[in-house]
Amino acid sequence: MEHFHTNRPGVNGLEISAVGSPELCPAAETAFGEILAAAATPRALLNDSEPLGRASILLVDRTDINRQLIKGILKAGPYRILEAPDTRAAFDLLESEPVDLVIAEMMPAAGDGLEFCRRIKSDRRTRLIPILIITSVQGFDNEVAYLDSGADEFLIKPLQPAIVRTRVKTMLRNKRVVDSLEEAETILFALAVTIEQRDKETGNHCQRLAALSVSLGKALGLPDEDLLALYRGGYLHDIGKIAIPDAILFKRGLLNEDEWAVMRSHTWKGEQICRPMRSLKPVLPIIRNHHERWDGTGYPDGLCGESIPLLSRILQLADIYDALTSRRSYKSAYSPEEAVAMIEKEAGMGWRDPELARVFCEMVRDPNFVTHSAALFAAGEDETENAALQSMLASLASMSRELLK
Ligand SMILES: [Fe+2]
User: How many whole angstroms separate alpha carbon 14 and alpha carbon 273?
Assistant: First the structure.
């Protein structure tokens, strides 16, 4: 947080101390980028000759003989086959077992089958499982209806074993790519939190930031996609600091001009790290532009006014408020009232979006908000902090479930 520069040692490093990081050499940084790029590149992850492992396939067909037929076709593959005679049994298995592919006979009652596909694709836990529909019914109408409902592929009887095996293999390969991307994103989030936690002073900065940013987004009536981007931005906005040497990141004195240039690069380096992940596209402007200033004197692009992405402006206010109300080794925590006054002062100086700052200050002054969040942002005793953290994590988990539905 570069916005309260004084010559007091350490204060200029307010933001610098906000996040710790492993000291990565350029080679390690490159390697990390390559891992992410590889994760986003199917070819880099999957070799055609690589065995698919023991993928789980769920067969949904009311006729035992049909299930036996498919099992026979797939018996040479390294698959674990689960069977369900109806959709109810199928959902029970989906609840209790990891499934990589669903092969379902088109239901005699088309509505059931369509609803089956829709339900799988609308549940966050199962939406990435591909569905292969097998049918003896010819005609585009059925196919279109099923594809519209979430089915991924169609095979029309009589089945050609070689085609079934190839189609299954392809769908499982694609599923593995999707799984790898999800894993890469999970790793990225875990890494971001680890970086934050390395500096004990920042406590649970990421979680608080996510909670504050989403609260402001909600107050502004933003759509769920934006709230989700803010939630993710709370964790990932400073991930570029992984590329900043500790000697600069943790320097207690003032940074010289060269060191500041390195420090400022955490914005575009963070964007570079997350760019391979398509799902993080809405978060990229937050990562890149969370240090811009309303009057154009920020970095890295010197954007001003509304050309600064709204989500970046939101996260920035939350970041400032959290840094001010947190205790650090070189400063005590400011009270919420003092923090609000400082943000208003910055808005008056032309650094922050005045209207957004007004809404934010109104939000954190609201008695309900204060009651709910006071413990979360207090630098109090450990026990209080733990209880507050548990409550906040529970509310974040529920918020995240809601957003990811
Ligand atoms: Fe930052």
Answer: 24
Q: Which domains does the chain have, with CATH numbers?
A: 56-177 (3.40.50.2300), 198-374 (1.10.3210.10)
Say whether pLDDT at 44 is over 60. no
Residue 289 alpha carbon to ligand 1 centre in Å: 9
List the structure tokens of 371.
Answer: 């009651």
Cα–ligand 1 centroid distance for 139 (angstroms): 56
Which of 39-43, 302-306, 334-338, 369-373: highest mean pLDDT?
Answer: 302-306
Contact 69, 159 (CB under 8 A): yes
The better pLDDT of the pair 391, 65 is held by 65
pLDDT reading at 50 higher than 70: no
Closest CA to 274 of 314, 307, 236: 236
Ligand 1 is an ion; residues with CB less than 5 A from it: 238
296 CA distance to ligand 1 middle (Å):
17
Q: Check pLDDT > 60 for residue 31.
A: no
Does residue 330 contact residue 376 with C-beta atoms inside 8 Å?
A: no
39 alpha carbon to ligand 1 midpoint, in Å? 25
* For the chain, percent of residues with pLDDT exceeding 90: 42
Output the CA torsion sign for 151, 153, 155, 160: negative
Q: Peptide bond preceding 300: is omega within 30 degrees of 0, i.e. cis?
A: yes
201 — pLDDT class (breaks 50, 70, 90) = low
Question: Parallel, antiparallel, or unpaired for β 131-135 and 101-105?
Answer: parallel
